[in-house]
Structure formats: C-alpha cells, structure tokens
Amino acid sequence: MSNKSFQILIIGGGAGGVTVAAQLMKKNNNLNIAIVEPSENHYYQPAWSLVGGGVYEFEDTVKHEEKLIPRGVTWIKDFAENIDPEQNQVTTRAGQTLNYDYLVVCPGVQINWDTITGFKDTVGKNQVTSNYVKEVVNYTWETIDNFKGGTAIFTFPAGAIKCPGAPQKIMYMAEEAFAKKGIRDKTKIIYANATGKMFGVPAYCKPLEEIVERKGIEVKYGHNLIELKPDTKEAVFAVNGGENVTIKYDMIHVSPAMKTPDFLQGSAISNEGGWVDVDQYTCQHNKYPNVFALGDASSLPTSKTAAAIRKEAPVVVSNLLALMAKQNPADKYGGYACCPLITGYGKTIMAEFDYSKEPTPSFPLDPTKERASMWMVKKYVLPWLYWNRMLKGEPFEPDSWRFLLNK
C-alpha cells in the first residue's frame, strides 16, 4: 500500500486523541492531522460504574467514532502495529505506512488477562463480573440485583489500572443495594486490595477508611487476585509476605491489572514497563522531541482518568504548536487528576489532586466530604461536559459551576 504523510499523526481516538485533535484544529484548521483508531464506537467509560450500579444506561455511554472526529481530521480506521521514531513512521495492521512530522500517542490501555487465571473464561457469568469489561458492565447490575446474600468480593489489583477509585465505587453502591433489599445482614462484603491503603492520596484515604468501617466492609490489604475457580466459586489471592489464600465467594467484582497495547510493548518510544516515556511536565518524549504522549498509555505518574486528560491535552497542544514554531515547549502539566469517589447512591467525594498528592479542589468546599452535589456532577454534569465541551476542544473549568455550592 502507498505511503501517506501527515503533519500530525495521533494514535488513539479516545478521550486523549479526539480532544487533542479538536484543540489543534481550533488553533489552526489548516493543519494536516490524522487519527489512527480501529474502533467504530467511542465509550464514556467513567459512567460504567453508574451502569454497574443500575442508575445509568450503557447505551448512553456510547457514540459512533465518526461523529466525534473533528471536521478536517482524517480518520484511519486501523490498528497501529509499529512505531519507527527514527524514520518518523507508523505502520498499521492493514499494511499502511504513515509518515509524520509530529506524533501524539494516546491509545489507552488494555486488560492484562494473563494476571488472573480463569478470569477471561468466566467473567460475565457465574456471578463473576467487572465494570472494566464493556461486554459485561450490564451484568454487574444484574449480579448485584439478583444477589441473595453470602460473600461478595470486590478486588483491586497490583499494577496500573484505569481510575483507581472505580473498584470501590461499585462496592459502595452494591452495599446500599443489598441493604435496600433487606439482605445486608446476610451478606459479607470483602474488599481485597493488593495495595496497603484505600487510596493513594492521604487526604482522601482517611474518609474512605471511615466509610468502609461505617458500612461494615472487611478490607484485606495486600491481597492480589491471581486465580478464579468458577466451579467451586473460589478466588485465590497472592498475599504480601505470606502464602496464597483462597476465599469462597457468591459474587465477585474483579478489577484486573492493565497494560499498554501490544505494539507499545518493547517499542523504541516506551520504557521498560511499556509506557510511552515522556517528561512528566511537558508530555514531550524524553528521547524523540517530535513525539508526545498523554492519557493512560503515557508514563505520566498520575491517575489514569479522563479528568487527567482534560488537563494534559492543552499542554500537549501548546507544546506541540510551540515546537512547530521552532520554540521551546514551555507549558507544564502539574499532574492534576480527579476521581469522583461514589460512596453510595446520591453521595460522592470529588477527589481532585496533583503531583504533590495534595487536594486541588475546584470548589470552595471541603473536598474530603461526601456530597449530594458532587453526585449530581458525576452523574449529569461531567458526561455532558465530556461530550459537548471536552471532545469538541472547548475549555471548561468546574469552578464556574456556582449553582452547586449550596449543596
């Protein structure tokens, strides 16, 4: 197949790729930009916790990719297979060779199925579910709604994961659903957490510890799920500093470890872990200056969330345009991320923070408190802003939402 050339080539048409392309086109609609993205559909994954909790429709988290690609941007519906940063080329699964002047890498991450024996074959049936597997998100609510009591396990893995608050969001909603059905006293809830704490930011860790205590949830730290035995409904955990432990379950929600797409594993632009090796402030590659990365597949040491991408994207755009103008990339990303921690139906802690691991609230309110207003932001405001502002390259700042401050 013949070569194609672009000023800017973007790998990934998710939140990062579409947002960067839209912002670039708003700055200069004469740019020659292409997005490599194989998927027909684009998903608003932050709402999958709400789908699993029975309060949001899965169909409302999906739009056709073609409707989101900015006008004037070429959509290459194909998989990236190899990146040659020395030749400024990307080859695709279909055999296309794509030349670029500048490359933006944001293909997201994928489930690392190999870390849990038996998971791939049993998820979506036999009371094994996961909000991280799009095909079975609806099954999460079916499992919770049909639960009759017993042991319900929710897991958090070792290693990288999208939205590290999500594994406990669904647990809190399930706990309240069980209480509403009158089976809470017949249910043991276990949070098997491979790490040693509830959350990576100390200010938000303490209220979450209080919440699991209040809800009577048993937290097992240092427990990493490594195997499922669906025939006997047993989960096997590797335990820090000890022997493996087997726990019987009546339902289990699994949050699996994740990794970058296969084409980044061992790539010249990736570090040893497979993450695109960029400066944590400029998002510019540490070896190849015409390469930038953002989002889940980048080495940026912050949470892998759409909210982080919202702050990363303008930095990438600014620094990329500066480089094109033969100026030094000077814009800085401070590590901002946001994790709306759903703590029950109608309650959310809006956890915002940056590289300092300190709260960076957008509202003049104590960010460590559960609030009904933040539930409304999570359920209604953020999805609207995602589809109608962020993906269209329009700026928005949460501190302008003054109507919420009386809640």
UniProtKB/TrEMBL annotation:
Q: Tell me a Gene Ontology molecular-function term this record carries.
A: quinone binding
Q: Does the keyword Transferase apply?
A: no
Q: In this protein, which residues make up the domain named FAD/NAD(P)-binding? A: 6-128, 206-303
Give the highest taxon in the source lineage.
Bacteria
Which cofactor names does the annotation list?
Answer: FAD
Report the record's Gene Ontology biological process terms.
Answer: sulfide oxidation, using sulfide:quinone oxidoreductase
Keyword Transit peptide among UniProt keywords: yes
Q: Which UniProt keywords apply?
A: FAD, Flavoprotein, Oxidoreductase, Quinone, Transit peptide
Q: Which InterPro entries match?
A: FAD/NAD-bd_sf, FAD/NAD-binding_dom, Sulphide_quinone_reductase
Give TM regions: none
Q: Which residues form a coiled coil?
A: none
State the protein's name.
Answer: FAD-dependent pyridine nucleotide-disulfide oxidoreductase
**Which species is the source of this protein?**
Cyanobacterium stanieri (strain ATCC 29140 / PCC 7202)
